[in-house]
Amino acid sequence: MTDNRSLIFHIQRAVMFSDLSAQKEGSSLLCRPASEDQGPVFERMSLAYSPCSEHYRVGERSFSRQYAHIYAARLMQMRPLLTERAQQKWGSDVLIRKLCDLQTGEQCCIVGTLFKRMDLQPSILREISEEHNLMPQPARVKYISESDELILEDELQRIKLEGKIDRDKCVTGSVIAVYGAERNDGKFTVEDFCTADLPLQSARPALSSDRFVLLASGLGLGSIHADSMLGLQLLVDMVTGQLGDQGEQSGAATISRVLLAGNLLSQNTQDKDATSKPKYLTKKTQAGSVEAIRLLDELLLQLVASVPVDVMPGQYDPTNYTIPQQPLHRCMFPLSSVYPTLQLASNPYQANIDGVRFLGTSGQNVCDIQMYSSMDSHLEILEETLRLRHLAPTAPDTLGCYPFYQKDPFILEECPHVYFSGNAPTFESKLIKGANGQEVLLVTIPDFSSTQTVCLVNLRTLECEPVSFSAFSADDNEESEMNVSH
């Protein structure tokens, strides 16, 4: 280099997949050049793949319907599940009432949809308050307060809840069963409550060898940080087997699929003022997302030539904003779309990979719940949505979604084996077990542009480990250091 700074490259091996290869007597990096000795060829494992996201595809696109239909459909679908769950918890003889049949002082169970009345919740009426010379509502990290109220609604009526229920943790749109009694003042005193909990799960096949699915999100192409591009290229080189010695390459061959969970483009590519600018000012300019998509296509080309790749859209990607987000259009990827290994998926995403069912989102549902509840951990929120048996309970109240009216597609009808959420601040994973023998691996996939970290899921053991790529340099030192750690 011109400034005589040295580049130190460290590969820290992990038990996860690097050490799967046999120990070698000497480093294969000291072998003859490829022109003289081609060396061993590692064949990548192929896995059976079956997409299961058809119910997230929107056929007709009619936005003339009211959102009351999706709440009605949600309650109608969830009521039998909650009734069964209530009888399991409080006995088969528990009295289950509708709100219109409540009698003061009678101990009973009621099933309904939660509504959380929040004074701090953003409102379009407050957003336009500047026109009336009023103070605009400030942006907040969380919108909960001591004045919040919990209300339970069914098809006909609503009632205010008080008692043994965590008001701050609950969110609007959750369908639950509560046990207690109505007081003289018309409020319902909660003694206990339950959720639908985990649905039934199909058996996971017994695999004979380790095989991995790599999960990444938040690539953030088009950002102003060059570090992320360096780490991104290291990631591609690692997956395609161009990084490390033969041991590393043998381990990379066990990565059988790559899943990119949204926010492929950076927030910097969003130009919200473009529509309000005069056309003569913008007709010779190019949107920042155009160059970012070109970079993404070139990146995908390197990957799909070597491994199957599933691509989910996210909050900053060029597709519809409301969930379920439809797959990115193939015309945006002229280079990589010619490969059958490129699968453009929806958000949410669901698929069977070698008999292991994956289900997850790009993270908008988790981030929205975080703002309107006391829960901070993305992993905790992920588990809560699984136990509620609903991917996005806050939709359509605070999270935009399509106005479905016959069926709510976000209700979980089958328990996944791997349940993930993208664009999290940190990597977290947890294996939870259900009452009927379900085993679910919860994974929060970190935002790659800020953490330089991806995750590897072992389909045989349902273990998950992070793989980190970091590039950093200190002004005081005369060397730049790069780490690839698993």
From TrEMBL:
The keyword Endoplasmic reticulum does not apply. Keywords: DNA damage, DNA excision, DNA repair, DNA replication, Nucleus. GO terms for molecular function: DNA binding. Gene3D superfamilies: 2.40.50.430, 3.60.21.50. It holds the Pfam family DNA_pol_D_N. Residues 213-427 form the DNA polymerase alpha/delta/epsilon subunit B domain. It comes from the Eukaryota. GO terms for biological process: DNA repair; DNA strand elongation involved in DNA replication. Residues 66-192 form the DNA polymerase delta subunit OB-fold domain. The keyword DNA repair applies. GO terms for cellular component: delta DNA polymerase complex. CDD domains: MPP_PolD2_C. Belongs to the DNA polymerase delta/II small subunit family. This is DNA polymerase delta subunit 2. It comes from Lates japonicus (Japanese lates).
